[in-house]
Specification:
This protein has 224 residues and is α/β, with parallel strands linked by helices. It folds into 2 domains: 3-95 and 204-223, 3-Layer(aba) Sandwich (Rossmann fold), CATH 3.40.50; 97-201, Rossmann fold (3-Layer(aba) Sandwich). It has 8 helices and 6 strands. It has helices at 3-21, 49-65, 82-88, 96-107, 118-122, 138-152, 158-172, 202-223; strands spanning 71-72, 93-94, 111-115, 132-134, 178-181, 199-201. Strand 3, helix 5 and strand 4 (132-134) form a beta-alpha-beta unit. The longest helix has 22 residues, at 202-223. The N and C termini lie far apart (35 Å).
């Protein structure tokens, strides 16, 4: 969900395999299947839950039929349906939000800026006891959502990146320790080398977790 973010996720998975595992030949990469799912909008609000769940169930069961071992969904907001998704198939499904939470806790951050869709914030996906989530104010959040929709339509003006960095600067002044890119579209315009602030990129986190699990399973299967 988010076609360009999904394409970028695939690229980052490939890069990790090349850099960490030294892959060179086709047989050194895991088999991967991409399903692009045209669900109703969930960025601004969720109005068609029944349709969304029907589409999710169909897509997940297709992947199960294709004998997949692991499912990774490069979208934060969709995890408002995570328990439903998990009930549809027996295959493990990685929850990108939970993987980011592990990263936050690993570094011990206690006050974290969350840049995400209106729905992700409204549904409290990043509300945890182990750290305090700090959000943009109403005006800034509206701008974040506009930027996400711009990216989804292929527009990435430099002004959008500058707007995000200004927001981060203001939120850092409130004592934040790092910034979570809690929408995978944001990973397409804001990365660690774009700013001096500490960034936890949910797309990177999911790619790393996916490969870690995939290669662990592959190693285990070879030894059996």
């Amino acid at each position: 969900m988010g076609p360009e973010a999904t394409a970028e996720f695939y690229k980052r998975v490939i890069k990790i395999i090349q850099e960490k595992y030294g892959a060179r030949y086709d047989y050194e990469y895991p088999e991967m299947i991409i399903v692009n799912l045209p669900i109703p909008d969930i960025v601004e609000d969720v109005k068609n839950r029944k349709i969304i769940l029907k589409l999710l169930k169909s897509a997940l069961q297709k992947l199960e039929f294709l004998d997949c071992d692991l499912i990774s969904v490069p979208c934060n907001t969709i995890n408002i349906f995570f328990e439903d998704m998990r009930s549809y198939v027996k295959i493990p499904i990685l929850n990108i939000v939970e993987e980011v939470k592990k990263e936050i806790n690993f570094f011990g951050y206690k006050k974290v800026v969350i840049l995400a869709t209106n729905t992700t914030i409204k549904e409290g996906l990043y509300e945890y006891d182990s750290f305090q989530a700090v959000y943009p104010d109403k005006g800034d959040q509206k701008k974040v959502n506009e930027i996400i929709l711009n990216i989804m339509s292929g527009k990435k003006p430099p002004s959008d990146r500058k707007s995000l960095i200004k927001m981060i600067r203001r939120l850092y002044s409130q004592g934040a320790e790092c910034v979570v890119l809690g929408c995978t579209e944001l990973s397409l315009i804001l990365q660690k080398n774009n700013t001096r602030y500490k960034i936890i990129d949910s797309l990177n986190v999911l790619a790393a977790s996916t490969i870690k699990i995939a290669f662990k399973e592959a190693t285990k299967n070879k030894s059996m």
